[in-house]
Amino acid sequence: LSYVSCLFGGWLASTRMGRFKTIVLLGGLYAAGTYMAAFASLPGIENVPMYVAGTMVLVTFGAGGIKPNVVTHGADQFDQDDP
């Protein structure tokens, strides 16, 4: 699922928000999904729907926003004229 959501992340960055804003927004979504999954798996809580929502929705869309944009954002830091 996270590889399919890369299409959404790339589209969002190139047409709507820009790379940096997309990385920040969907990176926060990724972090929220991991915290939600960790919280849902605590021994006293054990909430399966919250765990699935955290991993399959938030982490998936977060990874889809990070994967296609971080590499190109890092590549933009290098000057092509300076070897």
Question: Could you write a compact summary of the structure shown?
Answer:
With 83 residues, this protein is an all-alpha fold. 76% of the residues lie in helices and 0% in strands. It contains 3 helices and no strands.
Structural account:
The protein is an all-alpha fold. 76% of the residues lie in helices and 0% in strands. It has helices spanning 5-17, 19-40, 48-75. Helix 1 crosses helix 2, helix 1 (5-17) packs across helix 3 (48-75) and helix 2 (19-40) packs antiparallel against helix 3 (48-75). The longest helix has 28 residues, at 48-75. The chain is elongated.
Largest sheet geometry: none
Assembly classification = single chain
As residue ranges, the low-confidence spans are none
Number of helices: 3
Overall residue-averaged pLDDT value: 89
Proportion of helical residues? over 70%
Structural class assignment = mainly alpha
Number of strands: 0
* Beta-strand fraction estimate: under 5%
Large-scale geometry? elongated
Element string (H = helix, E = strand): HHH
Radius of gyration: 16 Å
Span between termini: 38 Å
